[in-house]
Amino acid sequence: MVRAWFMDNEVTDQRLEHHRNPPQFIPLEDLYEKTGVEYFKINVDNHEGDDTLQDIRKKRGYSYEDQITCSKECLPDYETKLKNFFTEHLHTDEEIRLVMEGSGYFDVRDADENWIRIEVIRGDMIIIPSGIYHRFTLDTKNFITAKRYFVGEPIWLPYNRPGSLRKSTCSRDIVALAIEQKKLDPLLAIAEFCKKCNIVL
Fold first, then answer.
1. Does the annotation list 19 as a binding residue?
2. pLDDT at residue 81 tops 50
3. Where, in this chain's numbering, is Fe(2+) bound (predicted)?
4. For the chain, how many structural domains are there in total?
């Protein structure tokens, strides 16, 4: 079962658990209320026959999937990729991950700018909503294999968070505009809404 907790502010080694003192764990119901992150337990030994997974795919329209392994042996340009994954960013689409083997951490921000660390292990599936700032890191085992699900052809575009957006409430508006106006480049959408919110990039 997935665990989630409020993080401390020390990130010298991102692969450690980084609990506060004393630890502050978050129930799944509160995690969803604070961040919109959804959790499901999937039978990865027979994931194609797992009713929960197939129901999610049907209802959400996930028509494409692939698989990624993050380890020094399997991932080209390993250190650079891990650095990119751990850079705070958002997407204009949901991020769906099903852990097939290994483990890692997804960090998401709540409305008060606190980092919440979500530990994922084999059989854990999480859905991170669009427009929420997050990041990913391996844990001390340095290995994870996960399936990724998409609606249509995959477009994995991260929009890194400028420092001037740290206290902004505009990210949902940015995503809404990018989704609503398909012909508008998301970067232009970001510029437009930062202008609206008086944010200097």
1. no
2. yes
3. 89, 91, 95, 134
4. 2
